[in-house]
């Protein structure tokens, strides 16, 4: 009798994501926000009762995390790993449906600069990642990496509140519009938080889309990044 293979359990996650309503709700949370069940029901176009069952399945699969605040329950993507998985699935879907056609349908602002969970994505996110790696502010080992001494000094100089307590400090995350990786993880999260709080980037009305300001162009200029837009 053959031994049964050891299963990793990923079918639980794929089953949780394999529904259009649940896909819509997870996509609405991809910019790192936390939303109540009622708003997620509206996003998915389903009733609150149906949304509750869908959300429970996502929480049980640890795709989403939930906490109560008063009489409301707020949901968010569980962690960076799940956010990276979702971005990778979007990338695969784009390839399967014809990446160039799919990319052409994406609004220009969203391609240029957007949030991917708590970090920067799109053309600007890829440019930031290339600069951090090229200037040896981060060092990669495969798909993960750490902030170098030069990188820590850069954070202090730019007043970026990065604390190197969690490892890895960075990891590669597939960018579904640029079709090359950008960086995710604690350092990119801290950089995006700084860029938003300092006014280098501002949120557009289009969900997840960001606008680069004059102050932001100066920040990227100091990194040697040539802004492509």
Topology:
Layout: H1 10-17, H2 20-28, E1 35-36, H3 37-44, H4 48-60, E2 64-69, E3 72-77, H5 80-97, H6 99-104, H7 108-112, E4 114-116, E5 119-121, H8 122-134, E6 138-141, E7 144-147, H9 149-158, E8 170-174, E9 181-184, H10 186-197, E10 201-203, E11 210-212, H11 214-222
Antiparallel strand pairs: 1-3, 2-3, 4-5, 6-7, 7-8, 8-9, 10-11
Structure at a glance:
The chain is 48% helix and 19% strand. The chain has helices spanning 10-17, 20-28, 37-44, 48-60, 80-97, 99-104, 108-112, 122-134, 149-158, 186-197, 214-222, and strands at residues 35-36, 64-69, 72-77, 114-116, 119-121, 138-141, 144-147, 170-174, 181-184, 201-203, 210-212.
Query: Could you say how many structural domains there are in total?
Result: 2
What does the main sheet amount to?
4 strands, antiparallel
N-to-C SSE string, H for helix and E for strand? HHEHHEEHHHEEHEEHEEHEEH
| Number of β-strand runs | 11
Q: Average pLDDT value? A: 87
Low-confidence stretches: none
Over the alpha carbons, how many angstroms does the gyration radius reach? 19 Å
- Characterize the overall form: globular
Class from secondary-structure proportions: alpha+beta
Q: Termini distance?
A: 62 Å
Assembly state: single chain
Helix content: 40-55%
How many individual helices?
A: 11
The portion of residues forming beta strands comes to: 15-25%
Strand order of the largest sheet: 6-7-8-9
């Amino acid at each position: 009798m053959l031994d049964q293979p050891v299963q990793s359990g990923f079918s639980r996650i794929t089953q949780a994501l394999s529904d259009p309503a649940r896909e819509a709700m997870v996509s609405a949370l991809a910019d790192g926000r936390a939303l109540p069940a009622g708003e997620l029901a509206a996003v998915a176009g389903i009733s609150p009762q149906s949304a509750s069952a869908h959300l429970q399945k996502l929480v049980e699969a640890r795709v989403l995390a939930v906490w109560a605040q008063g009489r409301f329950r707020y949901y968010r993507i569980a962690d960076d790993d799940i956010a990276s998985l979702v971005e990778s699935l979007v990338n695969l879907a784009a390839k399967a449906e014809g990446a160039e056609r799919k990319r052409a349908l994406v609004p220009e602002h969203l391609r240029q600069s957007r949030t991917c969970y708590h970090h920067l994505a799109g053309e600007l996110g890829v440019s930031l990642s290339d600069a951090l790696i090229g200037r040896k502010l981060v060092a990669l080992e495969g798909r993960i990496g750490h902030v170098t001494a030069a990188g820590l000094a850069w954070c202090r100089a730019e007043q970026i509140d990065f604390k190197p307590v969690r490892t890895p400090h960075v990891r590669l995350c597939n960018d579904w519009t640029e079709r090359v990786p950008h960086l995710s993880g604690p350092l990119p999260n801290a950089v995006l938080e700084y860029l938003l709080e300092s006014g280098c980037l501002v949120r557009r009305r289009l969900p997840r889309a960001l606008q680069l300001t004059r102050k932001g162009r100066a920040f990227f200029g100091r990194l040697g990044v040539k802004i492509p837009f």
